[in-house]
TrEMBL record, chains A, B:
<dbReference type="InterPro" id="IPR036237">
    <property type="entry name" value="Xyl_isomerase-like_sf"/>
</dbReference>
<dbReference type="InterPro" id="IPR013022">
    <property type="entry name" value="Xyl_isomerase-like_TIM-brl"/>
</dbReference>
<dbReference type="Pfam" id="PF01261">
    <property type="entry name" value="AP_endonuc_2"/>
</dbReference>
<keyword id="KW-0413">Isomerase</keyword>
<dbReference type="GO" id="GO:0016853">
    <property type="term" value="F:isomerase activity"/>
</dbReference>
<dbReference type="InterPro" id="IPR050312">
    <property type="entry name" value="IolE/XylAMocC-like"/>
</dbReference>
<feature type="domain" description="Xylose isomerase-like TIM barrel">
    <location>
        <begin position="37"/>
        <end position="277"/>
    </location>
</feature>
<protein>
    <submittedName>
        <fullName>Sugar phosphate isomerase/epimerase</fullName>
    </submittedName>
</protein>
């Protein structure tokens, strides 16, 4: 028999810095996510624009606030590489809305996935410059809302179709054209673990006050077709997550550590079970 | 009706530097490959160890020599990251055989794919150091045979399971511990195109006399499951191949340009047709 009224655990000290990105358990509705986080002693969530819009931004803000959760980031703005004027204007408008949504949700961090090459285009450098041009328009707008843009370098396997910013050095080169409280970077172990320059770049980000978000996922193989949903559960893969948490700590980062997994196998399982497993793995592979 | 005795074309000047890697048309036997290359005016081939071993190394050497073809490289040695003593000794022995095979085939270039992380291992740096240790044993041996080891950085998406050397800078850092005529690098557009540091590293390789092999494939998406056989036909993808050929030329590289495609769709087609298409694409996207 299952106890219909299980005791509500108190927040767990070892989970104090854990934030769960909503996409990790996209099988859960927003109310279910909030409920399970509270039950497991998880105090922070990272939210995703589309499900939040579906639920309603104000309602989502109220829901997480009432549950006592903080929102550590909103994912994601970006996709700023279009060449056409109309597409470009639409992208900028959408990113301004993303800034407003982040502010409404009570988070100061908007993660940006910058976008890939337009169809038929082969000019990575030009696309990166278009990202810089867009940031020049968006950064002051974000600043007005107290929102920091966190440019996320994605793994080089996404350079053509998702994000022309492939290394932390490139992301910082972009961010440093703007004030640190307006534009910084997202460090995600999945995207950066192979890069022997990344540790020194994390230090560079920390020293400049630009380490705005820190995300974890493990690297598992073989990669699935399309390579998007292969982000591994903590501890299942090749990344020494404790080492990377150490780089962030050495760079002065004391903020939330967000677990963001896109994984068909995890999505097919019971969401509460996945979250409980994620919390255990976080303690085992990051905290202890 | 097909002419049973088509005239044999003379070598095509625009194809003078084209080398076709055997894996591009693995549906062709070695005699078929040689015959079609001669018919199309292709003067160079890159060979692959396994099919050459099956055919017989001496017989293969005789076949390509009699066809008037030169062998531009042998792929591949490597897989040097094992931790166990026995595995390690076996890998070194196999690489010494690869050196001997390269010499027997009349090529001075052995491409090395260095190997991934051993199961359960999370130490990329340690694995890269084991590669260096292995090179220290293999480089003088290769030197005795007049064979250059060409360390190939593979795309970072292969860092865990295939090659812990992910950037040209890393490959050169390894190579520069040894004499340039013993150890250099392979530049492959598919693996490096995303890296904004690669052009300067190609210049570094050229200046040091370490640019030992230059390979082409295009980047197409979506990537297939396992991501191994997604190397795109020249011109089908996101890479400005002419630009990359220009970097090699600016670095003083005047050697063969090898097209190496692993692609299930190309393998399913008529091999002669694929080779003719590859030659046309080479002229269109690299030479003109």
């Amino acid at each position: 028999m299952t106890d219909p009224h299980p005791p509500r655990p108190l927040p767990v000290p070892e989970l104090a810095r854990l934030s769960v990105n909503q996409m990790t358990v996209k099988q859960l509705s927003l109310p279910e996510l909030a409920k399970v986080c509270v039950e497991l002693g998880i105090a922070h969530v990272g939210l995703w624009r589309e499900p939040v819009q579906t639920y309603g931004v104000e309602a989502a803000a109220r829901l997480v606030r009432d549950a006592g959760l903080t929102v550590t980031s909103l994912c994601r703005g970006g996709f700023l590489t279009a060449t056409g004027l109309e597409e470009r204007a639409a992208a900028l408008a959408d990113n301004r809305r993303a800034v407003e949504e982040a502010a409404a949700l009570g988070t100061d961090t908007l993660v940006l996935v910058c976008g890939g090459l337009p169809p038929g285009d082969k000019d990575l450098h030009g696309a990166r410059e278009r990202v810089a041009d867009a940031l020049a328009e968006l950064a002051p707008y974000a600043g007005q809302y107290g929102v920091k843009l966190a440019v996320e370098p994605l793994h080089p396997m996404f350079a053509a179709d998702r994000c022309v910013v492939s290394t932390l050095a490139q992301a910082l080169d972009l961010a440093e054209r703007f004030p640190a409280h307006q534009v910084g970077v997202t460090v995600d172990t999945y995207h950066l673990w192979w890069d022997d320059r990344a540790p020194e770049q994390i230090a560079r980000a920390g020293a400049a006050g630009r380490l705005h978000a820190f995300q974890l996922a493990d690297w598992t193989t073989p990669l699935p077709a399309g390579v998007l949903n292969g982000r591994g559960q903590l501890g299942d893969g090749a990344i020494d997550l404790r080492e990377w948490a150490g780089y962030a700590a050495a760079a002065g980062y004391t903020g939330p550590i967000e677990v963001e997994l896109f994984n068909d196998e995890l999505w097919a399982r019971d969401g509460r079970e996945v979250l409980a497993e994620t919390a255990r793995r976080f303690v085992e592979h990051v905290v202890r």
